[in-house]
Each structure stands twice: as C-alpha cells, then as structure tokens.
Amino acid sequence: MRPRRAARYAPVVPRTLGSVNEANHDRANPFSTLFRLLGAAVVAGVLVAFVALPGVGGAGLTARNAATDFQGMDSRLRSKPPSEKTVVYDADGKQIATFFDRYRESVKLAKVAPIMRTAIVDIEDSRFYQHGALDLKGTIRALASNVETEQTQGGSTLTQQYVKNILVDATKTKEEYQEVTAPTVGRKIRELRYALDLEEHMSKDEILQGYLNIAYFGSGAYGVQAASKRYFSKPASKLSLEQAALLAGITQNPTAYDPILHPAEARKRRDIVLYRMAQLGHISQEQARTSAAKPIELNRTDPVGGCESSDVPYFCEYVKYDMLNILSGGKYWSMTSKQQQSVVNKLNRGGYRIRTTLDPKAQKAADQALRNTVSPTSQKVGAEAMVEPGTGKLRAIGLSKRFGSGTGRTAINLAADRQHGGGAGISAGSTFKVFTLAAALDEGLPVTTSFSSGSSTTVSGMTNCKGGPTQIWSPSNSDPAEAGSYNLKTGTWHSVNTFYAQLEKKVGLCDAVKMAKRFGMKKATGEPLDEVPSQVLGTNDIDMVHLAAAYAGFAARGKYCTPISVTSVTDLNGKKISVPGSNCSQVIDEPLADEVNSILQGVLTRGTARGRSIGRPAAGKTGTCEEHMCAVFAGFTPNLAAATAYWDPRGPNRYKVYGVFGADQPASIWQQSMERALSGRPALGFSRPVGDFGDTATVPDVRGMTVDDAIARLKAEQFSVSVASGAVESDEEKGRVASTSPDGGTDAPIGSSVIIYVSKGKPDKPENGDSPPPSPNLPPDFPLPGRGGH
C-alpha cells in the first residue's frame, strides 16, 4: 500500500476554545480509551453505524459481524468523473448551446478562492487535514451527543461525504438513488470502506477539489464554480468572505439553505459558518461580526441549457439528434425508450465538447430573411436550410417561428426530417423536376427534346421499379395559358407540368425515382419515395435539409454528400470521440451536372424566378405544391445551396396558401439570405457544359464591337465563327460588326456557326432622294430599306 501523498494545502488550526473543549471531553469520557483499543475495522463499522443510526443497537449487529463485513468488502470505488455539462460550439469555436441535467463546471482547486476552501473545511470537517478517512474524535463526540440527546449528529468526514456524492451522482434511476441514500448500516459502512481507499490513493487537496466540484449547492448548481456563477455571476476564484461562507453553509441542506428560496435561513446558516471560522482562528471575531451584519446580496445568473435557451435552437436540435446517434453507435432510433433515455443522460452529463458546422454569418442571414418575410406570429411558417456543396456541411437551419411552447412558437424542427426533431415534411413541389431532367440527360436525350404540351394532359403505361403498373395520371399546368411546344430548357424555365409528365414517361418512372435517390432524397419520415407518376411534381413529402443537400450535389458538379452537423467531439478527458463524416460520392458525371446547372441558371434569368438573382452566378428551381398546400424554392451557387419553404403547418386539408408560388415568399427568403450569407465571398462561376447534349445557347448581340472582340465573345458561348467577305453599309462605325446571322438574342445549337458582317459605314445620301443601289457584296437575303428593315 503506497503512502498517502502529502497535502498541498493544510490550514493551521490553533488551539482555540473549541479544541480545548474537545480534549477535555475526551479525558472525561471513559469510552474514549476503549475505542482507541478496538481494532480500526471494528471501530469503523460499529461507530459509523451507531452515529448514523442510533437506534440500531437492538437489531443484532455485533462488532464481529461489522468487522468481518468491513474487512471482506471491495474497497476500490469504481466511479466515473462527476457529471459535467456538454457544450456545443459553432464552426468558429463560439459557444452556441449547452446540455445538462446537473449544472456543473468543474475547476481545479487553484481556481477556487482560498477563503472558500477554508470556509468549507471549517464548517464541514475542521480536522480534515489532521485525520484519515475516519475522524475518531468527531465520531466519538457525535456518538456521545446522540446518546445524550436522542438526536442524530453527523459523524461523516469530508472524504466520506465526497464518496456519498460520487455514488449519488452515478445513479441513473430513482431506484438506484434510493439504494445509495438508504438509511442503512451497510450503506454507511460501504461509504467508509471506499473513503479509506480514497485516502490512500488521493492527497487531501485532491479530495477537497473533488468534493467542491461534486457537491450540490442548491438551485440546480452542482459544484462550487456553478454555484458561484449561479448566485453571484462570478467565478469561484473571485468569491468574497461573505459569499464563501454562504456557499459553504448550503451543502448541509441544499434545499433548506437555498438563498433564493429561503434567504432568512440561508443567512442564519451563513453566520454560523462565519463564527465557526472565527472560532477556529481563520478570521477575526470582528470580521465575523462585520460580515454577519451584511444582508445577503445575490447577483443571479439562472442556469439555462438545452436548445430552447440557444440563439440557434433549430440548428441545436439537429445537432442534438446527431449526437444521440453518435453516442449510441448509430442505434438510437432502434432503441427502446429506456435505452434512449440512457443516451440522453449520457449527452447531458458527459461533459462533451462538440464542434459543429454552423456558419454564424449564414445562420444570421437565414434568420433575418425568414423573419423579414414571414412574421413569427403568423399562422404560416417559413423554413430554410443551407448546405455547403462538396462537403455536406449544414451551415444554417431556421424557421420564422420562435422555438419553444406557447402561442406563435413551435418545438418541432419543421425544416428537418423526423430523425432530427422534425415532422412528416412537406411536398417538394416542382423542385423535384430536376431529378427527371438529370435522368433525361443521363439517358442521352438532347436538350432540344420537345413535346407539344397543352394546359392539361393524360399519361398512362408507366411502371414502378418492381415492374408494377401505375394508375393513369392527368396533370394540368398551374397557368392554363401555358401551352405549346417546350424542350428540356424551356420546359424547365417555365416549370411546365404537362411537359414534365411526358418527359417522365419518356425517361421512365423508375429511372426518375432512382435519380432522386442518388441525391439522397427520401421522405422526411425516413420511408422510401413513393414510386408514382406524380412524384415528378414533388408529391413526396421531404425536408429542407435534404433538399438543400441534393441541390448542393448539383452545385458540386454531381458530387453528392450526406448532410452533417458535427465535425468533432471530445470527452471530459479531451479524448476524441469517433464522429462519422459526410458520405460523398460522384452520383452523376461532371459534364451532365454542368448541363443541369446551365439550364437551372435560366430559371433565375428567363424563367419562373426572374428577378430573384443575387448579383452572382446562381441557379435554382421554383416549386408550387399540389393544391396550393405549400410553396418551395431550392437554389445554389458553386459554394452554397439553400432550400426554402412556406406553408401552414396546422393541417393540409383546411389551411392552404392560395396565390403563393415558389417565386414568391420562398424565393424571396432564399434571395435575401444568400445575398447576406455570401457577401464578401468570391463570386464563383459555374463550369461550362462540355459534351454533346444537343443544347442551345443565346447568340450574343455583338453589334458595334470590333471583329476580334465579337469573335471572342461568340466563341465564349461555344459558337463557331466566320466573317463574311466584303463589308456592308450600316449605321455602325466602319470596321465594326454590323450584324450577325443568326441575329443576336436568338437561340441556336451550341457549336453551330455564326456569321459576322462587317460595317463599311453609313451609305452616302443620294442627291435625288432615291434609295441607293444594293451593294454587290450584300448577301441575297440581307434586309434592305423597304424590305422589312433590320
């Protein structure tokens, strides 16, 4: 057995009146000599039993039984560190949330004010630095008092109290708590046996430090640091004499002496501590009287934890459920409720340090945009999630409503799926058309593929992935005026339902659904997508986080990454916990993704979301849910993707959002949040599509440019260029471009030829006012005055 380490802090206890009386009491008491002669084990077992329970003498407990049980008992206290609050940080390392059910913040003894250390020792165990695990003098005195007064006086040392607190802190159920606090002889003997072992393996300072960090100080504060912040809003290193005495007095009965609940009783107890400190010579009598004359002055900081107290509650909720899954080894949702509660306790008490993916700038941008667009007290709700392309990092998640219970609030993380505190999700609307578009291009359909698309249509003959037939489907356009011939580009820009119904049949329902699955799409409930024809219009209910992650996959040129919110976790000892990273894979070829992105850019410039540009290259897709149940928008730049929704969560059958489209509130939220989130960041461009997709592009208007500049501009749009021989008369300056064929502003197949006509200047004015003769260099079809004009 190795010797006990010397104490690093040992207050000098002068022989005051109290200590003299103790010595006289020992000489006058004939039992004292007897007790010194008894074996240590018997003394430990019997004395502690009688001190704790003065009425058990007739229960048949003998010294021999106590000694036998005591000596054969397992002495090593196998305990974990005391429960500690878990802290969550954003990507920059700023604290955003805490989780706890016991508010504690452990500190080293050197971080506790010396006056606090003295006060707790003086009132709880003044001979702490002189005795071992059992204080014979204190025990005998307590026994004598119990016999004389028939009232129990405690005989536990500070080490024994530390042991009891360790055992209590480790309990997980009500039954376990009752067992370790039961008023039995066996329990007291067991505590003493553990205390003896601690005294052999820990220094006195280490025991005191442990006790100060684990003791309960009332009002939900565990440990001296938490108590100091709870009552005085200062660290334990800054405590004054009066404050230290108040805290030291609480631990005997944390409820009765709680200064918030019972200030008068707390003050009486504080004064007892002050006069005890004076009695032991650690402060003067004048100091005690002066301090006792002062009223209790609190500067409270109420401990708040959980997501409701966080400034980013919905992101916090997402992280919470990711952590529960991490701590359960990915099994949280398959556990029983009792097992799940055990994991929750682990999170609340484990003292973990969690670094997350939260971008505070993006989160602030999302929150501002949501509440600028949808009032927090409205029955309607706006939701948004932002995901980083190429990494899957969830950068922001928010709702227009405040978090919590009560009017105008919600505790459901409506932007997330059910496994992250969300609900059943909402319809994706026409944002789901992007997957059928990608499937069509993947199967080699050219962009010029067109269908005559009326205001309504009927499609039949489709089969699901099991080969089963689907019902006949008769969709119609949201605008009856939308009728005509559309191709992959124009049909997407104008979100023509009847066009996409025919395209889905051409592609195949199963292939369209499989493409959505490649990009991580599933129902918000976790169930697989319904393989029905109407899925192309977004009839599957999904969540905004996974929709944003899917669109981030297109932004990353076909590299889809599962969304993640946690990047690193360390435990109380600084050991790293294994954290699953994002699962990234190239789900479609880069050129194909580039083509999809090129088409989606036109939605913001020429399609349903005209006017929602953000001052940098961006792409997206609007969505209006079936029967006006909701409106959705998903959009992205190369470095950030976001999905937004607007709906009434009270119920789909009664509450709709008539007259609202994806380009309205959802696109407005997206536009505002993306502009703010990306401000100051480089305006990256999309990769130009390379490949034979049969795509078209708009011929640039290069009139008035130099020939070299015009050639460069046209080639940049992937057209081949030739210059007509000779020159033509025009209003443009001589030597500059007079016109092109095809004209600027018209669509032509990518890679096709554009002819440049060079100006020779304005024609000479004829004297007789007749039209000038045609130039011999003009092409036969060149427009002349009187033949239609240019």
UniProtKB/TrEMBL annotation:
InterPro entries: Beta-lactam/transpept-like (IPR012338), Glyco_trans_51 (IPR001264), Glycosyltr_51/Transpeptidase (IPR050396), Lysozyme-like_dom_sf (IPR023346), PASTA_dom (IPR005543), PBP_transglycosylase (IPR036950), PCN-bd_Tpept (IPR001460). It catalyses: [GlcNAc-(1->4)-Mur2Ac(oyl-L-Ala-gamma-D-Glu-L-Lys-D-Ala-D-Ala)](n)-di-trans,octa-cis-undecaprenyl diphosphate + beta-D-GlcNAc-(1->4)-Mur2Ac(oyl-L-Ala-gamma-D-Glu-L-Lys-D-Ala-D-Ala)-di-trans,octa-cis-undecaprenyl diphosphate = [GlcNAc-(1->4)-Mur2Ac(oyl-L-Ala-gamma-D-Glu-L-Lys-D-Ala-D-Ala)](n+1)-di-trans,octa-cis-undecaprenyl diphosphate + di-trans,octa-cis-undecaprenyl diphosphate + H(+); Preferential cleavage: (Ac)2-L-Lys-D-Ala-|-D-Ala. Also transpeptidation of peptidyl-alanyl moieties that are N-acyl substituents of D-alanine. GO terms for biological process: cell wall organization; peptidoglycan biosynthetic process; proteolysis; regulation of cell shape. Residues 771-783 have a biased composition (Pro residues). One of its GO terms (cellular component) is outer membrane-bounded periplasmic space. PROSITE patterns: PASTA (PS51178). One of its GO terms (molecular function) is serine-type D-Ala-D-Ala carboxypeptidase activity. Gene3D superfamilies: 3.30.10.20, Biosynthetic peptidoglycan transglycosylase-like (1.10.3810.10), DD-peptidase/beta-lactamase superfamily (3.40.710.10). The chain crosses the membrane at residues 34-56. Residues 723-790 are annotated as: Disordered. Residues 695-760 form the PASTA domain. Keywords: Carboxypeptidase, Cell shape, Cell wall biogenesis/degradation, Glycosyltransferase, Hydrolase, Membrane, Multifunctional enzyme, Peptidoglycan synthesis, Protease, Transferase, Transmembrane, Transmembrane helix. Pfam families: PASTA, Transgly, Transpeptidase. In the N-terminal section; belongs to the glycosyltransferase 51 family. This is Penicillin-binding protein 2D. It comes from Actinomadura rubteroloni.
